[in-house]
Amino acid sequence: MIDDTAQNSAMENSLLKMRLPKEMTIIVIDITNKCDLGCSNCTRLLENQDKLWEMTPDNFRLAVQSLKNFPGTVGIIGGNPAMHRNFVEICNIFAEEFPDKSRRGLWTNNIFKHEDIATRTFGGFNLNAHNSQRGKQSLRGLKSLKIGNYYDGNSVHAPLLTAVKDLFPEDEMWGRISKCDINQEWSASIVQNNGVLRGYFCEVAASFDLARGTDHGKPIVSDWWKGNIDFFKDQITHFCPGCGVPAKLKGTMDELETDTYTSSNSDLAEKSARLRSRNVVRLEANSLEFDEHKVTLYSHEARSYNKQRGSASKFSKFKNQVRRVIRNLAN
Question: Are residues 146 and 261 in the same domain?
Fold first, then answer.
């Protein structure tokens, strides 16, 4: 073990290397946790949340207004944002409050009936059908615009619930946190937590709060995202040690609808297994498979995983299809 001074030093060195929201090129607004898929190790922990929610149009307007001076892209994400009952109104508010179309983005796996309004509203897309035939058909028009990213095949997701603090000593834990994919390459976020807007230095940190019914978010005021490291330090020290992204463990194919976890996150995994019959796998320190790939491998990057694991069994596919039907009926 290392002493408290060494632990604090490791943490402080890590904080100095982390990217703040004001240094990011994208900040996302999560407008709903509704989704028509149930991907393995979802970065939004959708299957671990207790109830469905949608951001109110008034709150969405306030969220966008708080980012009016942000120089990068503001993205709408979910869940699947196209499942929001007020999606058209949300798009109209976005256009009113954030005039530069080139910096309005949409992240979705299926646009449903909203292709026209999406084409008019957004100047960039991150489209990932996760090999869903319905999703690929829905996204054909947006794909043809060739503005942003498009992935039609399966993705591989590294586990979020394998807490890095369960797997490494303190100094190595903080060293890994300082190089986290999410912090270095993804986004800060705004969510609606029990009806109230909250800001996070990390989009995955927001997911943990929503999954646990807790609130460590920052109040959404003008330019909240300009906060320095001391402003976000409490979020970083609370969420990062319990997250699995820095652990760099082997990922799981999206269609298997399986979450991998360690003891610190057993509450979330066991809840989804109990309430939603979710496939969950508990890892122990002597059964870890490390892999230095990014937290998400998209389409062509995931093909080697397809080859390694082979096709999912017919029974597994059938079981997952039944779960999707039940989830869609519940929504």
Answer: no
